[in-house]
Design a protein that fits this description.
The complex is a heterodimer of chains A (112) and B (117).
Chain A (H helix, E strand, L loop, with lengths): L3 E2 L4 E5 L4 E7 L4 E9 L6 E7 L4 E4 L2 E6 L4 E6 L8 E9 L2 E6 L3 E6 L1
Parallel strand pairs in A: 2-11
Antiparallel strand pairs in A: 1-3, 3-8, 4-5, 4-9, 6-7, 7-8, 9-10, 9-11
Chain B lengths: L3 E4 L2 E4 L5 E7 L5 E7 L5 E8 L2 E5 L6 E7 L2 E6 L8 E8 L11 E3 L3 E5 L1
Parallel strand pairs in B: 2-11
Antiparallel strand pairs in B: 1-3, 3-8, 4-5, 4-9, 5-6, 7-8, 9-10, 9-11
The chains are: A mainly beta (112), B mainly beta (117).
Chain lengths: 112, 117
Amino acid sequence: DQQVKQNSPSLSVQEGRISILNCDYTNSMFDYFLWYKKYPAEGPTFLISISSIKDKNEDGRFTVFLNKSAKHLSLHIVPSQPGDSAVYFCAASGTGRRALTFGSGTRLQVQP
Amino acid sequence: DTAVSQTPKYLVTQMGNDKSIKCEQNLGHDTMYWYKQDSKKFLKIMFSYNNKELIINETVPNRFSPKSPDKAHLNLHINSLELGDSAVYFCASSQSDLGEQGGTEAFFGQGTRLTVV
C-alpha cells in the first residue's frame, strides 16, 4: 500500500530549463511534506519542505507546490543545473505517523 | 564533522552470520531511525527511538534488534543473516518526533550496503 507515489521513475531536462517532479499521496493525515535529494552511495539530503497550511514554499532555485484537494505536490527546479542530477524522493509525515513515508524516487538527469 | 555517521559503509557476510551496524548522531536530536532501501529503491521505516524509547517497530523479522544505549546512538543488530537481508540500511535522526504537529526534517547517514552471500 503505497501512500506516497512518484509515478515518473526518471526525467531528463536540458541545462537552464525547468525541472518539474511530481508526487501524489493518499493519506489525509499527512500534514508535512519534504523533498530529499540523493546521490549514489550517499544518504538522502533534505532539500525543501512544506506544511499543509501553505500551498507554496520557495528556496532559491527550488519551489515546492502543494495542492491539498488533489493530494499532489510538485518540486520545481529553475534553472536546472547538471549538478542537480540525482534521485529525488518525496516524503510525508503527519500526526500519528511518527516517521517519514517515502515515494519510490525520480531520477533527474540534467543534460549540459 | 559528520552529523549522522554509520559504520561500516560496506558489509559483506555469509548467510547465518550475526552482524551489527552502528549509528551515531552529533546533532543533539531526540529521535533516531533505521530505514531499509530494498532492491526496488523504496526507503522503508524499520524502527524509531525517541529518547531511547522504541516508538516504531514495523513488520520486521525479530532477527533484527535495535539497541539505543543513549539518545545519540542507535545500533542495529541482525541475527542469522539471510540472502533477502541484502539491502542498503540508512540511519537517520530528527530533532523531534516526526508525528508532532508542525513537522521537521530527518537527517540521514551515508548508508550501509549489506551483502549477504
